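Private note to self, pasted from the team thread so I don't lose it. C-alpha cells:
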C-alpha cells in the first residue's frame, strides 16, 4: 500500500480534447481548424483541405453523446473533467468580431451536465486546434496579430463561463511547438523550412497571449485560477560523461524556458544566451514585457515518458521515442515506442516544485494500447490489466512526490474515454477506461463499454488513492 494519502479535496478525473472526441466538425456553425487538414496525425504533411478519411470529423461523437459520457465519468466518481473548447466553434475563422452563439451554447450544455453531477470543469482554451483560416492567412502564431484574436476569444470565454469555471489552461503543451509547429502553433510553413527566428517569435507571441489571458481571467473572474500546460519530460544522461550531462542541461533548458516565463514573468538567462548565439532578434515590446508579468497560479503538465540524451552522435540508433533522445536501455516501451518510466514522474514533479514553488496539476498521463473487446459473463469489456498496472505505478510515484513535499492539486488521466490519437490519428491507440466501438477505418457502432480499469479507477477515487498498490 502507498505510504502517503492524497490530500483532501484532491481533484481526481480525466482529460480530453475537443478535436479528438467531439466530432460535429461542421455542426452548429463551427469552422475548420488545422485538425481538418491533419487526417494522419502529426507525422504526415497537411492536406489541401478536409478529406473523407479524417476520423476526427466524427471523433467519438461526444458532440451528441456528452450527457451519456459525463454520466459515466460521474459513475467513476470524477471530481474534475478536463476538456477543451474548440476555438473554431466559437470563432469559426478566428478573426471575426463577434462569436458564434451556437458554439457557446454547446459548452453551456456541457457545463450544465458537469454541474448536475458535481464535477469541476477544467477548461483548456486552445488545445491543438488553431482555426485553419488563421494558419492559412497569418501562418499561425508567427503573426503578432494572433495575440489580439486570442485575446478576443479568451475574453468571450471568461465573460460567458467565468462564474462556472474555476480552473483554466491557456495552451495545451505549449513547449510542443518546438517539435510540432503546425499542431502546436498553427504554423503552416513546413518545419524544415521554418527559421528559428520565426519559430521563437511565434513562441513569444504565444507566451504573451498566455500572460494576457491570465490577466484578463483575474479581472473578469477573480476566483479563477489559470495554469500553463507543459510537456513534462525528464532527461537523463546516457553515461556519466560531463559532455552528456551538458547535453541534458541544454535539452532541459529548452523545455523549462516555457515554465520560467509563465512563473517568473521574464525570459531566463540561458534563453537570452541562446537567442544571442543563434542571431535571433525577437520583437519584444515594452507592453509585452509588462504583460508577461501576469504570472500563472499553477503549473499543469502531461507526463508520458522520459528521454535519454548523449553527446555521442553514434550512440543512438534512431530516436528513443516520439520526443527524441536516444534509447534508454533500462526502460520498457509501450506498443508505440514510448519509454515507460513511473519514477520519472516523481523526479519531474520534484524538479518543477523546487524550481517554481507553484502548485502542480497532472492533467495528462496514460497508456496508449491496442485493446481487445471480449465478453466476460455475458458483458462486453476489455481486460486491460496492463493499463491498470501503468496507472497504478505512476500514481504511486505521484504519492511519493506528495510525501516529498510537492503541492499537487489533482490528476486527470489522458483519454479517460477512447478517442482519436493526436500523434497518429488512430482509434486503435486507446487510452480510456471506456471502450468506444469505432475503428481506424471509421466503422463501428460508437457504443460505449466499461473496461476493467473503469471499476479500478472508481475504487482509486473512492479511497482517495488508498487502494493503490506500491
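Design output:
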Amino acid at each position: 500500500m502507498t505510504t502517503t494519502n492524497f490530500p483532501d479535496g484532491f481533484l481526481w478525473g480525466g482529460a480530453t480534447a475537443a478535436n479528438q472526441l467531439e466530432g460535429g466538425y461542421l455542426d452548429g456553425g463551427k469552422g475548420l481548424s488545422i485538425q481538418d487538414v491533419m487526417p494522419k496525425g502529426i507525422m504526415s504533411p497537411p492536406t489541401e483541405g478536409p478529406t473523407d478519411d479524417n476520423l476526427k470529423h466524427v471523433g467519438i461523437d461526444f458532440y451528441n453523446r456528452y450527457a451519456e459520457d459525463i454520466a459515466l465519468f460521474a459513475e467513476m466518481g470524477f471530481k474534475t473533467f478536463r476538456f477543451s473548447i474548440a476555438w473554431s466553434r466559437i470563432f469559426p475563422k478566428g478573426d471575426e468580431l463577434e462569436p458564434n452563439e451556437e458554439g457557446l451554447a454547446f459548452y453551456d450544455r456541457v457545463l450544465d451536465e458537469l454541474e448536475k453531477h458535481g464535477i469541476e470543469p477544467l477548461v483548456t482554451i486552445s488545445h491543438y486546434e488553431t482555426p485553419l483560416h488563421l494558419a492559412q492567412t497569418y501562418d499561425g502564431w508567427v503573426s503578432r496579430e494572433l495575440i489580439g484574436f486570442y485575446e478576443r476569444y479568451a475574453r468571450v470565454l471568461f465573460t460567458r463561463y467565468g462564474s462556472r469555471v474555476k480552473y483554466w489552461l491557456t495552451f495545451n503543451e505549449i513547449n510542443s511547438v518546438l517539435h510540432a509547429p503546425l499542431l502546436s502553433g498553427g504554423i503552416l510553413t513546413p518545419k524544415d523550412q521554418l527559421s528559428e527566428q520565426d519559430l521563437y517569435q511565434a513562441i513569444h507571441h504565444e507566451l504573451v497571449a498566455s500572460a494576457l489571458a491570465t490577466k484578463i481571467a483575474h479581472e473578469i473572474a477573480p476566483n479563477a485560477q489559470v495554469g500553463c500546460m507543459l510537456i513534462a519530460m525528464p532527461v537523463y544522461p546516457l553515461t556519466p560523461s560531463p559532455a552528456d550531462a551538458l547535453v541534458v542541461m541544454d535539452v532541459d533548458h529548452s523545455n523549462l524556458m516555457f515554465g520560467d516565463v509563465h512563473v517568473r514573468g521574464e525570459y531566463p538567462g540561458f534563453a537570452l544566451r541562446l537567442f544571442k548565439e543563434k542571431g535571433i532578434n525577437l520583437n519584444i515590446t515594452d507592453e509585452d514585457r509588462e504583460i508577461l508579468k501576469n504570472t500563472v497560479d499553477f503549473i499543469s503538465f502531461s507526463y508520458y515518458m522520459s528521454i535519454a540524451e548523449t553527446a555521442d552522435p553514434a550512440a543512438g540508433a534512431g530516436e528513443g521515442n516520439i520526443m527524441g533522445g536516444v534509447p534508454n536501455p533500462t526502460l520498457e516501451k509501450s506498443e508505440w515506442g514510448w519509454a515507460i518510466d513511473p519514477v520519472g514522474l516523481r523526479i519531474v514533479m520534484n524538479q518543477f516544485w523546487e524550481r517554481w514553488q507553484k502548485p502542480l496539476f497532472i492533467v495528462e498521463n496514460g497508456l496508449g494500447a491496442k485493446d481487445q473487446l471480449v465478453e466476460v459473463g455475458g458483458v462486453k469489456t476489455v481486460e486491460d490489466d496492463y493499463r491498470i498496472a501503468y496507472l497504478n505505478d505512476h500514481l504511486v510515484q505521484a504519492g511519493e512526490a506528495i510525501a516529498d513535499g510537492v503541492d499537487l492539486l489533482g490528476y486527470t488521466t489522458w483519454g479517460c474515454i477512447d478517442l482519436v490519437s493526436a500523434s497518429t490519428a488512430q482509434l486503435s491507440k486507446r487510452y480510456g477506461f471506456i471502450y468506444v466501438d469505432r475503428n481506424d477505418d471509421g466503422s463501428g457502432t460508437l457504443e460505449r463499454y466499461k473496461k476493467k480499469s473503469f471499476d479500478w479507477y472508481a475504487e482509486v477515487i473512492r479511497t482517495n488513492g488508498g487502494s493503490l498498490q506500491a
